[in-house]
Amino acid sequence: MRPTSRVASAALAVAALLLGVLPAQARAHPDRAPDRVPDRVTVGDRTFIADDRGRALQWRGFNLADKSSRGTNAFADIHESDLRDMAGRGFNLARLAFFWDDLEPAPGHYDRGYLAKMRRILDWADRYHIKVILDAHQDVYGPHFGSRGVPDWATRDEGLPFEPIPDDWFSEYFEPSVQTAFDHLYKDADLRAAHARMWMTVAAALGRHPALLGYDLMNEPFAKFLEGEDLPAAAARFEATELTELWNRLARAIRLVDHRSWVFVEPTVIVGVGVPTRMGHIDDPHAGYAPHFYETAMETGGDYDPDGPFIPAYEAAISDYPTRHRMPVIVGEWGGNPYVPHASQFVTDMTASLDRFSSGWTWWQWCRGGGYCFLDRTGAAKPNAQLLVQPYAPAVAGDPLGFAYDPATRTYTLTFRTRDNAAGPTRIIVPRDTYPGGYRVDLHGSNASWDDHGQTVTVRTHGRAGDTYRVTISPR
């Protein structure tokens, strides 16, 4: 069935969904097709997405975002060479930002050319064996406030004033007009319906693409403060009520046309200062958690403090929610200025932390130039950003018990335990840039062998389920 037909045939179902009158069975179990193997692997307090062979998957990559190109020029700054070069350095994931204001410039009128451009980028990603998360990106709501995201026609600010703050754009979220616009998006029936239809349109058009991993439902959601609330109190109330409802509503709309892809939900940005989320349960068979991981001092122009409390506080705040709900964690954004004095320690400490609590990440962002760009204007990796290029295991045939990379010695270690329902080899990416002089592999465990080809070390185990293996990769 063509995507447009799929959308049309589901229109009545969407209306019923938004009114809350879908049959209980359809709401609770939108995907009834049985999986051959579980869709996730949980080891201790951490969950990984599993492939169709039962292997635990890990992800490393970048955000792709062209915020300046609009309309017919949308995505003009994203090229096939970006995906090729990412893969050439061993990365396997891209988080692609798209903008609702470009996709649906007028109510109900979707730009099919825009969807075709998104598909073309997915085609490039598939060519280079990169998976993609589609990110419905917004900054300060949308173009009504001089940014990108929710269309102007879906912006209701009640005529309240808006004062741009160029030197501190995030503070614009606290403008009453911006908060009021968010409030209408979550509460007005027609905007709720439009939001769900937008996602259903994207999922119907792109949901079967082989490069698609899933959907990040809204970048950095925000909300209206009630009288007397500070940021933590407002975030807690919003996450527990409207945000949980929003994620479930959008996920149900997607499931009308796409039963297999993952949906990724974000908490509010308050988690970045060590405040645990108060989000409720996401009633979806393939739901993942996609928080952001920004160091507040660096976000305001400062240097990274290696002795500061940021990383321990963040790890303590971030882990409880996905552990309780058995959700894989892929950090959708993190990054920092690669030229501050402690930039190399920042990247080292952050990647080590991400290895402790997540199954993957995408750095902000893959681009050439200043700021957080991975590449300089010549296309070379910035010296401290180059530390992102590390060995990792995109597929583990069993339970990953531990993995870590020491940049000082350039030593990577993976320990895993085999399972009955995990088939196929374990794959480890060994980037050429990390070991220009070659590397050695030490494999401990009975009945196992390894070989390498290109940037991949392949480990095959032939023992019993429950056997433990350790792989160490170091400079030759």
Shape: globular
In the sheet with the most strands, the strands line up as 9-8-7-6-5-4-13-11
Number of domains: 2
Number of helices: 13
Mind describing the biggest β-sheet?
A: 8 strands, parallel
The CATH architecture term of the largest domain is Alpha-Beta Barrel
- CATH topology of the largest domain, which one? TIM Barrel
| Mean pLDDT score | 93
Family: Belongs to the glycosyl hydrolase 5 (cellulase A) family.
Keywords: Glycosidase, Hydrolase, Signal
Protein name: Endoglycoceramidase
Domain Glycoside hydrolase family: 51-367
Overall description:
- This protein has helices at residues 3-9, 11-18, 24-28, 80-88, 100-103, 112-127, 176-187, 189-206, 231-255, 296-299, 310-318, 320-325, 343-357, and strands spanning 40-43, 46-49, 56-57, 59-64, 93-98, 131-136, 212-216, 262-265, 287-289, 292-293, 330-331, 333-334, 360-363, 392-396, 399-406, 411-417, 426-429, 439-444, 448-453, 456-461, 468-475.
- The strands form 5 sheets. It has an 8-stranded parallel beta sheet.
- It is of the alpha/beta class and 476 residues long.
- The protein folds into 2 domains: 40-390, TIM Barrel; 391-475, Immunoglobulin-like.
- The model is unreliable at 1-16 and 19-35 (pLDDT under 50).
- Helix content is 29%, strand content 21%.
- Residues 391-473 form the Glycoside hydrolase family 5 C-terminal domain.
- Residues 1-26 form the signal peptide.
- This is Endoglycoceramidase.
